[in-house]
Design a protein that fits this description.
The protein is mainly α. The protein has one domain. The chain is 59% helix and 5% strand. It contains nine helices and three strands, in the order αββααααααααβ. It has a three-stranded antiparallel beta sheet. Helix 2 packs across helix 6 and helix 6 packs across helix 8. It is globular and about 45 Å long.
């Protein structure tokens, strides 16, 4: 995974990479990664079954518990906007960092928005339950790709509009599927 990220960041790295089955600017992929990591921490243990190993899940348990406690302590402070950093700041422990990045990367590597929704919508719903106002900023992270924002925020009702339709509409036709299939799914 580290080699993958280094290749993305190299001077001759790709201008676009796949995120949720859509080509997005490389910088947006990293914003997507950051947003999904924060959502995982906020809603942990919701994503626990997706940890690569039971040991890595235990390491994330410890990190997430520390973050939950920090979130509640910061809620008692006058500057409440500090609360979100309990989930958005990177971990100090490199193993915890790698473990949570692996989960987030796997969620972002899904072939399309419907597959991503299977993983991410339960996290978004849990985030709303935990803290509605804070969850909004984590469900629509600044700088994130349109596909990620649509998956986290749009709930299709009936068969009228799919997530793919919304992505195409919001992006004014500039979004391209990474898989090469057309936008109709």
């Amino acid at each position: 995974m580290q080699q993958k990220y280094l290749s993305f960041l190299s001077p001759d790295g790709p201008e676009q990479v796949s995120s949720i089955g859509w080509l997005t600017p490389t910088a947006q992929y990293f914003q997507d990664l950051r947003g999904v990591v924060a959502l995982i921490f906020m809603t942990w243990p919701e994503a626990r079954p997706h940890a690569a190993t039971p040991e890595l899940a235990r390491i994330i348990d410890t990190e997430a518990e520390r973050r939950h406690e920090l979130f509640h302590r910061r809620g008692a402070q006058p500057r409440k906007n500090l609360r979100s950093t309990a989930y958005t700041d990177p971990p100090d422990d490199p193993v915890a960092t790698g473990a949570v990045l692996e989960i987030a990367d796997r969620f972002l590597r899904t072939p399309d928005e419907e597959a991503a929704a299977q993983f991410l919508v339960p996290l978004a719903n849990e985030a709303k339950r935990i803290h509605q106002p804070l969850s909004y900023s984590l469900r629509s992270p600044r700088g994130a790709s349109i596909p990620l924002r649509v998956v986290l925020a749009y709930c299709p009702r009936g068969k009228s509009r799919t997530r793919s339709d919304v992505i195409q509409g919001v992006s004014a036709g500039t979004a391209t599927r990474a898989t090469g299939r057309d936008s109709s799914g």
